[in-house]
Write a structure and sequence with these properties.
457 residues, binds FE3-S4 cluster, alpha/beta, binds S-adenosyl-L-homocysteine, 21 strands, 21% strand, pyruvate-formate lyase- activating enzyme, binds iron/sulfur cluster, Rossmann fold
Length: 457
């Protein structure tokens, strides 16, 4: 029996892909290992979205080399978006990588892992670091082709959580936001068959999973055999046993009134929306090729708040995009003050080789210190708003789905609005909906107090 350890970086799509990989490996008799030291195969499933994400992976793969000392037969592979981006050049990095595999090739995992072992012959042991890397690289394997039909249909994912499940409905991306590497490492958009998605959700419900999150890079551009996202969302929301449905990330451009209507009408669709805006000035949005204006974005926020008062909103924003003037940056701060997001993921622009933004005039690139200062300023503005909004919720009693044990004892769960709450309760409550009074907040999470359920009659 072989054991596989997969360490995941990046977005929910990558977490979901790791679950698919565990599923594919399980069919060939692999079981998941709890830690890398116990594994025959270590896979690092990577992200390429920012340089920082890639540097972390290089550091981590370097660290994992120590495991070869005790287990020279271990196979170390790098999968995912950074694997796709760097390809063969990764093989000789960070002490040596045995296999590099892109996001469309996971069905080949068991075969390619076997091939790695045959090809490399006796493991590279007790070599000087540089020789080790070169030796491993020379025998290493790369599997990088895109497959426009690969949706991993028929693979049963081995999921980490039995409470909340990621359900990919789309892979790749047809947008070409000028800063973004995703279309180049994941290929064009491809959508799964709606019946296969519904079957998967029904199977999850039958297994007692109460919450699903539909996933796609531009999840609301989903379109397959006459099905669009409002129709699919409505059907998923009505699967018996499913009590919470979320979807991420929608693109503002494909965000329609029809979708708002379904969200508002279906009680199991969580009143929570992550709608990435990226910037608060039309000139920046245009250079980013986001294909909407600030006014259009704000109009959609209005639709949503009108139909679902109190809905929780979150977003992604990039500061320091090439050509961003101080006026444009101030406009982003104004947008954040106007919308008042419950949560926001805030980034400094990171240049990605091969993306269109790298060809903007060099003299327009924002100096790093300026980018850093803008990011700090934006974080400060957002945090103050977020703290106010969270503080306003203290004292309320809300329904929480208990997800797992808390890091410092007790349990942790989420509210319908996707807010994290930790509270004292037995682990037996994992998977249950309970009422919790929010007693305090750090400004980003809550501490709560369980309201004991009345004894069943
Ligand atoms: N498909 C999603 C985004 C996936 S990437 C969407 O379109 O909403 C997650 C976030 O990373 C993006 O929303 C963006 O804010 C950020 N991001 C993407 N490329 C980046 C880059 N080159 N530098 C900094 N942040 C970036
Ligand atoms: Fe990247 Fe834009 Fe596609 Fe999102 S929509 S993955 S930001 S190209
Ligand atoms: Fe990163 Fe790939 Fe997701 S680049 S953000 S892991 S799609």
């Amino acid at each position: 029996m072989k054991r596989a350890y997969i360490e995941t970086y990046g977005c929910q799509m990558n977490i979901s892909d790791s679950e698919l990989m565990h599923g594919i490996l399980a069919e060939q008799g692999y079981t998941p290992a709890d830690k890398p030291e116990d594994a025959d195969v270590i896979l690092v499933n990577t992200c390429a979205i920012r340089d920082h994400a890639e540097q972390r992976v290089i550091g981590r793969v370097g660290q994992l080399q120590q495991i070869r000392r005790d287990n020279p037969d271990v196979v170390i592979g790098v999968t995912g978006c950074m694997a796709q981006r760097m390809g063969e050049s990764l093989l000789g990095k960070a002490g040596g990588v045995d296999m590099v595999m892109g996001p469309d090739a996971y069905r080949q995992l068991p075969d390619k892992l076997a091939e790695v072992v045959t090809r490399r012959g006796p493991a590279a042991v007790k070599l000087a670091p540089a020789t080790q890397a070169a030796t491993i690289a020379a025998r290493g394997l790369t599997v990088l082709g895109f497959d426009p039909h690969e949706n991993y249909e028929g693979v049963t994912a081995k999921r980490i959580s039995s409470v909340s499940a990621w359900v990919p409905i789309q892979r790749g991306c047809n947008y070409r936001c000028t800063y973004c590497i995703v279309p180049y490492v994941r290929g064009d958009e491809k959508n799964r068959d709606s019946q296969a998605i519904l079957d998967e959700v029904r199977a999850l419900a039958a297994d007692g999973v109460p919450e699903v999150t539909l996933l796609g890079q531009t999840v609301n551009s989903y379109e397959h055999g006459g099905w669009n996202v409002p129709r699919l969302l409505r059907e998923v929301a009505r699967v018996p046993g499913i009590r919470r449905v979320r979807f991420t990330s929608p693109h503002p451009n494909d965000f329609t009134r029809e979708l708002v209507e379904v969200m508002a009408a279906e009680p199991t669709v969580c009143k929570q929306l992550h709608l990435p805006v990226q910037a608060g000035h039309d000139r920046t949005l245009k250079r980013m090729l986001r294909r909407y204006t600030v006014a259009e974005y704000m109009e959609k926020i209005e639709w949503v708040r009108e139909a679902m008062p109190g809905i929780a909103l979150s977003t992604d924003i990039i500061v320091g995009f090439p050509g961003e003037t101080d006026e444009e940056y101030q406009a982003t701060l104004d947008l954040v003050r106007a919308v008042r997001f419950d949560d926001a993921f805030l980034y400094k622009y990171s240049e990605r080789d091969g993306t269109p933004a790298t060809r903007l005039p060099r003299d327009q690139f924002v100096p790093d210190e300026v980018g850093q200062a803008r990011l700090a300023g934006l974080i400060a503005v957002h945090r103050r708003i977020q703290a106010e909004m969270y503080q306003a919720e203290v004292g309320r009693t809300v329904e929480v789905l208990v997800e797992k044990e808390g890091r410092r004892g007790g349990v942790q769960g989420r509210t319908e609005s996707n807010k994290v709450v930790t509270f004292e309760a037995p682990a037996e409550l994992i998977g249950y909906f309970v009422d919790v009074t929010l007693v305090s907040t750090t400004g980003a999470t809550f501490t709560g107090e369980l309201i004991p359920a009345l004894a069943a009659a």
